[in-house]
Structure formats: structure tokens, C-alpha cells
Amino acid sequence: MANFAKSRVPRFSAEVYQNPYLPEGGREVHAIITVTATGGGTTGGRPVPAAGGGPDAGVVIMVDRSGSMDHPPAKLRGAREATAAALDTVRDGVRFAVVAGNHRAVEVYPGGGRLAVAAAATRAQAKEALRTLTAGGGTAIGSWLRLTGRLLASAELGIRHALLLTDGRNEHESPRELRAALDVCSGAFTCDARGVGTDWEVKEVTAVASALLGTADIVADPAGLAADFTRLMETAMGKEIADVGLRLWTPLGAETVFVRQVAPTVVDLTGRCRESGPRSADYPTGSWGDESRDYHLCLRVPAAGIGREMLAGRVTLITSAPDGDPARRPPRPLSQGLVRAVWTDDVAAATAIHPQVAHYTGQAELAQAIQQGLDARKSGDTDGATAKLGRAVQLAGASGNEGSAKLLAKVVDVVDTATGTVRLKAKVAEADEMTLETRSTKTVRMKK
């Protein structure tokens, strides 16, 4: 196995794309902030082999072992193989554990409420422990997450990550219990969630990934689990800096309307902020390797007259202290960007929308249109589903989102992309509908 190791800490940059001009009395300012981390020793999420030790990191793999995982048996077999493949990708020295979950969570390896240290011997022992895994019982994902949080908290770690695999609905705990578990785990670790087969609930799996700043996807065929888990673990091993926050300062009288991640996926961060000083709030972005992400800010500033100019907002990328305790690790600024507001009587300047803002506004609408269209389809609202999915086809075509366009074409017959004219397909494979819903928030970046 390659010894993937940390070579250096990423350097962050922040670029601001906006039209700063407002008409007299105008108040709403939009900006896209492109944050890029480079030089962290990864390429496209894949670690670069190097000598020496890596960052202090821990990972827990949560494997569904409920009764449905035995129907067909290929699901549990595929889960074992995928977990073994992921373990082969964990670099030496990383702390790790395997958790099995049904209506309760149990430690498969190493046990004792602790994490093992990755090495050839411990990987072999973990794989041997996986052989004893059998299916039975119900599903209570919140209990899996809570145990994972306790395990990752048992050691001083810089990077804390988890992988979750499930094939069923969370029927053995209430939505409130799952929400409470997500609240407890939010900020404690990041988590990628996968649904295998077609008997799981998309909104549950995507809620886990969204709350814990990870990715969500479907693996319809259990045979694809090993490759997917390997990619996920490679990306996790490529993370070099954790707890990065987006700190937003606004002037007196201004307010934040929303803060969204808009690439590579749409994630609303508005309600997740934590006050960090006078007129300042921190928004979590999770762990980073070599990568780039885009954020859409909407600010409402006090109205002003022609010729006036003001700083509408200041965005600073920081390393956030764990558990909100600045005494343990004071936040350190990584990069900064400024958002401006300028009042003008030039109508053309004041009414122009920056192409980046327009593009990501459309991508956010695309995600919403897909989700609303599928919800309408499930409820039997044919007209509503046709209208929303038609609008989604139109937006996907206009923005060049070929991935969403291809998935939409499996749910609707496209008559005219430009006008969004579609017909609902009479029969749609469940896997195709779930794939479209799960991947609805994936966006494409605008070519600059």
C-alpha cells in the first residue's frame, strides 16, 4: 500500500465576483466568493505519495448490518468488500475504527471505545473482524453517528472523517432523534453518506451528508461499492487542514440574507453560523485538500445616495478552533476578500447581473426545481411535476449542466430544451429517480 503523507499545508486564496453598482436607494448586494486551496500535497482529491508522517487524522466507517442487508446477500458482501478496500487506502498512522449499525451501533474493530492505528497488522485484523458481520435488526442511524462521534473524540485529531453506508429507512428512531444526533455531531466530524440499492430514503441520507459537510450519493448496484469507497477514502486521506471557517463581517446596519456553498454542490450555510465578534459570524466549510469551492453571499446594506460607496462585507477564511474553544487553537486568517457597494445613476451598470452570480443563481434554482418536481411526481401532481422538471431541463441546458440533463432525460421525455417543454415518462426506474434526487444539488462551474 502506498504511504500517502502530508507534504505541506494548503495555501488559500479568495476571489470576489460581483457587480458592486446599485441604483439610488438600492440595498441588496450579491457576490460569488471562489475559495481555492493549493499546495497541500493532493491532486484532484487524490493524495500525493510522499515520505514521512501525515496530518493527525481519524476515520470511522459505519456499515449497515440491518436485516435488509441480507436481501439480496450481495449487499452485505459488497459492504464488507467495500470496507476492506477503504481500509487498504487508509495511510499508515491514521487512527481508524469500523462500526456496524442496525437498531443500535456496535464496534466491529478495534473495540473498547478507542481507535486503532493503521498499519498492515491492524488492517488485516479489521478485515478479519468484518468476516463475522451478519445482518439482522432494524435501522437507527442516529445511534451510529453518536458512537462514531465518541470514537473520533477519543484521540486528539486534526482531521476527523466518517463514511456511512445504509440500505434502508431510518425506521427505529424518530426524525427528531436523528436530527438531535446530527446536531451533536455537526462540527465534530465530516461524513460522506451512501445509499446502496433502492430501499433507502434519499432525504435521510442527503440530510446526514449536508449536516456533516460531506457528500451523498447512490450506489444502486452493490458491485460498485468497493470502487466508490476507495475513491471516498482517497479523498479523505487527501484532506490536509480541518475546521476551515468562512468569517463574514458586515458594517453597522447591514444584514446577511443568505450564505450558500454553490459549487461543487449547493449547501445552505445560512443557519449554521456562529457569532465571532461584533457584526461578525463564522460559517463552517469543513476539511480541505487541494480543491476549489464557490460561495454565494447575499447582503442587505443601508440605502445610500448617488456617488456613495461602502464596504458591504469582508470575507476571511480562517482555521476554526475545535469545539468553539479559541483557547485551544486561536483562529488563524488564511485569505480575505472584500464585497463592495457603490451607488450610481448609470442604469445599465446598476441593473447588470454579474455572470457568476447569474450562473449560480440558476444552479440553485435548478436543484430546487428538481427536488420540487420529484416531490410533485411522487404526490401525483402531474401538472406541477411537469412544470418544475421542465424548468429544470431548461436551466440544465442553459447552464451546461450535462450531468443533470442526462439524469432528467431518464425521468422525462424532452420535447424542447430551450423552452423547458417536457412530458413525464410513464415508467421510471426507481434507481434513476433516486439518482436524480440524490445528485440534484451537484453543480457545474462557469467557465471563466
Task: Give a short summary of the structure.
By secondary structure, the protein is α+β, with helices and mostly antiparallel strands. The chain has helices at residues 74-89, 120-130, 141-152, 175-185, 202-211, 225-237, 347-351, 355-378, 382-399, 402-408, 430-438; strands at 11-17, 21-22, 28-38, 42-43, 46-47, 57-64, 95-101, 105-109, 116-117, 159-166, 190-196, 216-219, 241-249, 255-263, 267-268, 274-277, 280-288, 291-300, 309-319, 332-343, 412-416, 421-424.
Strand tally = 22
Total helical elements: 11
Mean pLDDT: 92
Helix content: 25-40%
List low-pLDDT spans.
1-7, 42-53, 321-327
If you compute it from the alpha carbons, what radius of gyration comes out, rounded to the nearest whole angstrom? 23 Å
Shape, principal axes of CA atoms: globular
Query: What gap, in angstroms, lies between the N and C termini?
Result: 39 Å
- Based on secondary structure, the structural category is alpha+beta
As a percent range, the share of strand residues is 25-35%
The description of the largest β-sheet is:
7 strands, mixed
Structure report:
It contains eleven helices and 22 strands. It has helices at 74-89, 120-130, 141-152, 175-185, 202-211, 225-237, 347-351, 355-378, 382-399, 402-408, 430-438, and strands at 11-17, 21-22, 28-38, 42-43, 46-47, 57-64, 95-101, 105-109, 116-117, 159-166, 190-196, 216-219, 241-249, 255-263, 267-268, 274-277, 280-288, 291-300, 309-319, 332-343, 412-416, 421-424. Strands 6, 7, 8, 9, 10, 11 and 12 form a seven-stranded mixed sheet that branches. Strands 2-20-19-13-17-16 form a six-stranded mixed sheet. The longest helix has 24 residues, at 355-378. The radius of gyration is 23 Å and the shape is globular.
